[in-house]
């Protein structure tokens, strides 16, 4: 095969490799610089060390900020998932007045830039003289996570085979039993996906948090504040550890689903 | 009929009604069913009403306030001064232009990068498809601030990217990439790339490959098949992807703050500093309202022209 034909045939693969490089080079940098033997600024390479991985809490404020982010993430996820799932069921399973308005109210927060969401909520809190802190961050996070949960769960409910529920009813299950035994288990993967999405949105949010956090420090806020005077390599260690953990979890999940499918 | 009897009947009726209201859920009773959706909606919609709608109204009201002469910092009164809008918009016209310009270029670049990639994953990846999809999402697992700071390192003057660009004479020996408009656009494009790839992939995956084969059988070459069959069928994904990229890109200020300079200021930067540093809430509110309104107008024109109503 001539080189030109080879190129033509593999153009899209080469393109894909380039695109994936673009996606992963910054991730690689974050990972590599977690081994950097840096003192203050972590922008230039000073030498290899495992020291930062051995002492991930070695830099001041890193771990408390991480713990705060995790707490906020869990709390916001639980509330947003519960509220969003209920809305999703109402929208997918019921006909009612005010449907269009509801759909619009769900869609709008996703179509609003974060800076506007953050600024408007801050304007409200300032007007009501609410002191900013942990609670206001959770309130903000639940607000922008609900829509994403609704969309995810609604898609799952819409994909269900209605005959499964009809069959349960035919077999004398009442409405509650049908919901509990048939509908809920089938929708659970959608709810789980919505919760994961909510958690990752909350955990990584900076803009809205920055507007409504007062002096509470979350992990992204810690990164932002310390970026002015030099981010400790421990931040890279924590980010890399989160990345590896999430990546492995997703990979294991994928493999498990693939195996289940093969067995079924 | 005695009065006592009448009361008795009334009581019995009331008792039955009470039983019906409190009794176990029964699908055949329409009153309860009609109430269910509203009960399901109530907590979530109340949350959105209090913490999304009311704040937007507050923002709208803040935007026409002024600071009375001699008042303390941070105290503003409602004077319905609508010329706040004229002042802020004329003062920040260039900033708005930059925000939408960068967002537009970044969206176009992201589309150019994402479409072939989504196509490759949907049609050429075979059994690697799911793994590649995980890889598309995986960068999200790293804090986006750290990834943006990584771009600062990648595009630094002594980094390998800039050195090789100088060696290839793409840029002059004295030129910089970091702290410039191109660096900001590179950062924005990077930041929202998965938002573009995933919807396009989702709609390409639903395209029946037999339609593409049929086009080939009818003597369409690869380009014509793409133009007349594949691309039109994937249009909903393209529309969703461009919106999911353009909207956050127009409001973004992190890339501009970390990778740009004073001349790359976007609306988000101004809103942030007016609110949190300068304590000029009315101007920040005016800019936020204008940003959101212009995005909504652009989006609705775009959706109408693209001819897809189903987005959510």
Task: Write up what this structure looks like.
Chain A has 264 residues and is mostly helical. Chain A has 11 helices and no strands. Chain A has helices at 3-32, 51-54, 62-93, 99-110, 114-127, 134-158, 162-170, 175-204, 207-212, 219-227, 233-263. Chain A is globular, with a radius of gyration of 23 Å. Mean pLDDT of chain B is 86; it is low at 1-29. Chain B is an all-alpha fold and 312 residues long. Chains A and B meet through helix 1, helix 3, helix 4, helix 5 and helix 6 of A and helix 2, helix 4, helix 5, helix 6 and helix 12 of B.
**Total helical segments of chain B:** 15
Q: Estimate percent helicity of chain A.
A: over 70%
User: What's the tally of helices of chain A?
Assistant: 11
Query: What quaternary form is this?
Result: heterodimer
Helix-strand category of chain A: mainly alpha
User: Structural class from helices and strands of chain B?
Assistant: mainly alpha
List unreliable stretches of 5+ residues of chain B. Answer: 1-29
Shape label of chain A: globular
Number of E strands of chain B: 2
Distance between the termini of chain A: 43 Å
List the helices and strands and how they pair.
The complex is a heterodimer of chains A (264) and B (312).
Chain A: H1 3-32, H2 51-54, H3 62-93, H4 99-110, H5 114-127, H6 134-158, H7 162-170, H8 175-204, H9 207-212, H10 219-227, H11 233-263
Helix pairs in contact in A: 3-6, 3-8, 3-10, 4-6, 6-8, 7-8
Chain B: H1 3-22, H2 30-62, E1 65-66, E2 77-78, H3 83-91, H4 93-123, H5 129-137, H6 144-154, H7 160-167, H8 181-191, H9 193-205, H10 209-217, H11 222-233, H12 235-251, H13 254-259, H14 267-276, H15 281-306
Antiparallel strand pairs in B: 1-2
């Amino acid at each position: 095969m001539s080189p030109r034909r080879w190129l033509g045939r593999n153009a899209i693969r080469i393109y894909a490799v380039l695109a994936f490089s673009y996606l992963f080079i910054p991730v690689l940098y974050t990972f590599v610089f977690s081994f950097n033997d840096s003192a203050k600024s972590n922008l230039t390479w000073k030498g290899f060390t495992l020291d930062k991985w051995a002492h991930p809490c070695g830099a001041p404020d890193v771990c408390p900020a991480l713990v705060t982010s995790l707490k906020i993430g869990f709390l916001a996820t639980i509330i947003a998932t519960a509220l969003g799932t209920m809305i999703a069921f109402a929208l997918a399973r019921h006909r009612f007045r005010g449907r269009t308005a509801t759909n619009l109210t769900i869609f709008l927060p996703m179509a609003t830039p974060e800076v506007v969401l953050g600024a408007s909520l801050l304007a409200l809190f300032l007007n009501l003289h609410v002191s900013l802190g942990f609670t206001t961050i959770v309130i903000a996070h639940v607000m922008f996570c609900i829509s994403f949960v609704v969309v995810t769960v609604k898609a799952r409910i819409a994909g269900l085979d209605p005959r499964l529920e009809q069959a349960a009813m035919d077999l004398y299950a009442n409405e509650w039993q049908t919901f509990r035994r048939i509908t809920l288990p089938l929708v659970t993967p959608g709810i789980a996906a919505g919760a994961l999405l909510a958690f990752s949105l909350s955990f990584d949010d900076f803009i809205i948090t920055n507007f409504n956090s007062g002096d509470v420090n979350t992990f992204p806020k810690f990164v932002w504040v310390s970026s002015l005077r030099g981010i400790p390599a421990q931040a890279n260690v924590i980010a890399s550890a989160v990345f590896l953990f999430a990546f492995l979890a997703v990979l294991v999940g994928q493999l498990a689903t693939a195996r289940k499918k093969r067995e079924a | 009929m005695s009065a006592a009897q009448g009361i008795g009947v009334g009581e019995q009726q009331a008792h039955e009604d009470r039983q019906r209201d409190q009794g176990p859920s029964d699908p055949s009773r329409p009153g309860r069913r009609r109430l269910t959706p509203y009960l399901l909606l109530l907590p979530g919609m109340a949350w959105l009403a209090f913490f999304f709608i009311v704040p937007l109204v507050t923002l709208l009201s803040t935007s026409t306030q002024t600071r009375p002469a001699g008042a303390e910092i941070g105290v503003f009164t409602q004077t319905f001064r609508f010329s706040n809008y004229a002042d802020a918009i004329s003062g920040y016209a260039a900033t708005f232009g930059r925000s939408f310009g960068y967002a537009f270029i970044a969206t176009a670049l992201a589309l150019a990068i994402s479409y072939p990639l989504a196509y490759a994953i949907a049609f050429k990846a075979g059994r690697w498809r799911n793994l590649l999809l995980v890889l598309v999402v995986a960068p999200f697992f790293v804090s986006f601030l750290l990834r943006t700071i990584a771009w600062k390192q990648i595009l630094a003057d002594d980094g390998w990217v800039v050195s090789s660009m100088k060696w290839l004479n793409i840029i002059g020996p004295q030129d910089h990439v970091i702290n410039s408009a191109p660096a900001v656009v590179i950062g924005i494009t990077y930041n929202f790339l998965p938002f573009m790839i995933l919807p396009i992939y989702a709609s390409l995956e639903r395209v029946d490959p037999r339609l593409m084969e049929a086009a080939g059988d009818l003597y369409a070459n690869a380009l014509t098949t793409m133009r007349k069959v594949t691309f039109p069928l994937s249009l909903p994904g393209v529309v969703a992807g461009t919106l999911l990229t353009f909207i956050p890109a127009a409001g973004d200020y992190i890339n501009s703050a970390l990778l740009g300079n004073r001349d790359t200021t976007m609306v988000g930067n101004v809103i942030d500093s007016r609110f949190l540093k300068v304590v000029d809430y009315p101007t920040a509110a005016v800019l936020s309202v204008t940003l959101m309104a212009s995005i909504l107008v652009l989006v609705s024109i775009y959706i109408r022209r693209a001819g897809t109503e189903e987005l959510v």
